[in-house]
Amino acid sequence: MARILQLTLNGRARTDAVPDNVLLLDYLREHVGLTGTKTGCDGGECGACTVLVDDRPRLSCLTLAATVAGRRVDTIESLARDGHLSAVQRGFHEKLGAQCGYCTPGFIMASAGLLRRNPRPTDDDIREALGSNICRCTGYVKIIEAVQHAAALHATGVSP
To answer: pLDDT band at residue 138, thresholds of 50, 70 and 90?
Structure first.
């Protein structure tokens, strides 16, 4: 069975017919063509599929698309504005927070969600916010430094 899904996706109103059983991850990648959200473990353990739903991180591999009806969904594609990277994107770039890059969109979205709720996070806040994201390449030190740098950029007015 299908339903009409109305939501705000990356700042734009959108209406699509979607099957009741389609995951948000599959809706974003296959129906809409936004491939920045990555398929990782398919079980909610790695965080590669993290998006923001009303500014809160959500694992899109565990979320039915129908459950975000009427909500605001932001993906990695929404962060850069007018060719300028967001604070978190800049933080990951300038502080070398990514290695292979596969997990990076999920980390960036979880970090953006954190900074939208808490613009001055402590190291413990950062670790807690990123606790559902896994990186197989780093020791997480550069990722935490990237988020700290993003918070400093955000304090100067750069959008998270």
So the answer is: confident
Sign, CA torsion 43/117/32/6 = positive
**Which domains, from first to last, does the chain contain?**
2-76 (3.10.20.30), 87-155 (1.10.150.120)
Question: Which helix (H) or strand (E) element contains residue 116?
Answer: helix 104-117
Instruction: From residue 7, give the alpha-carbon distance in Å to each of 39, 54, 100.
Output: 22, 11, 32
CB contact at 8 A, 51 and 85: no
Average pLDDT score over the chain: 96
Instruction: Note whether 90 and 115 are within 8 A (CB).
Output: no
pLDDT grade for 60, boundaries at 50, 70 and 90:
very high
Place of tokens 């398919």: 42
Record the tokens describing residue 78, joined without a space.
């929404």
> In this structure, are residues 62 and 116 in contact, taking their beta carbons and an 8 Å threshold?
no
Question: 41 is written with which tokens?
Answer: 């473990």
